[in-house]
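seq:
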Amino acid sequence: MLALWPAQPALAQVAPTPAAYDSAAAQAPRPPLVLGAYAQGSFILNHTAAISHLVASHPTGFELNAQRQTTGRAAWHGWYKYPKVGLALVYYDYHNPVLDRSYAATVYISKPLWRTPRHDLSFRLGTGLAWFTNPFDLQANRKNTIVSSSLNATLQLRLEYDYALSKHLGLLVGLAVNHYSNGATTKPNFGMNLPSLVLGLNYHQQRPAPTVPYLAPNPADVGRNFLLASTSLGYKQVGVGDYQKHLVNSVTVAAGRRVNRKSNLLLGLEGFYDRSLLAAQRDTARSGDRLVDVKKAGVFVGHELLFGRLAFVSHLGVYVYNPYKSNTFYYERLGLRYQFTKVVFGAIDLKIHRGTADVIEFKVGAKLAKQP
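struct:
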């Protein structure tokens, strides 16, 4: 029986030269396809009293996905133990006319935690966009305090186990959390968290997939410093019933260092200008009152987890100039940065204050580094 699943080649103990690895990677086989169909059973996490009237139902969902099992064509494949990358389409029925239904498309990476010819335990992280059919409306659907706009961002976390029933068919079970939010661009925005049980089947084009027989050597820029400069824009709504969107801008300068093949560390300075705070002041100010400066400045430390040109970004910052106390003294940021060229990059970040979304930032910037 086990002869159906040949063992994968062991990784060499001695790292190859860059030229030898490039030659081997160029000959790596095309990543085989994995197709999946899963059912999901969920409940709505009651994380705030404002959504308590909506947590009685038990949403059910269905997912179709297509994945590629990486084989080592890119250096980072081996550094992350040959993960799968994929696209998932997820449908949910919330069994509640206030919430109705949602449709989502998510891109993701699934990193193996334990893999043998017949067993695959992995952790999936994905993000994408979701469309809700019945969002909050002040006149027609004011009970929907969870979802205030049709278009939302989605985040998917999942621990999944795939057991080989045959050479090509796998049984998948998983524990997941699906998160939906519009990043406070429209209010109310308490967001939705769906702890879920997942059960389904995978079709594997080839299992296990052949891989490059050794890891890539460390990239030439490990231990080198670089500078990042960027600007961003976003928009926010002041409150429920105010449908005007206000621009939010930021400027960031950061110094970084690639500390190993997977990670960059950052130290930076940035400024923020949130026009929604001006609008909020004008709504409450008396005639002749002098408005407080809403500009803010902060310093931050950050980490970037690298997947080739893509980086998962996490920052922790502290305000050093903050005359208008509209938030906590610190902020967090989670996002994705993509290096389009050696210099130009783009990013999408979610800025957070103590677990509450503040704004979604769309960034463009430049990376300046001495080429190795």
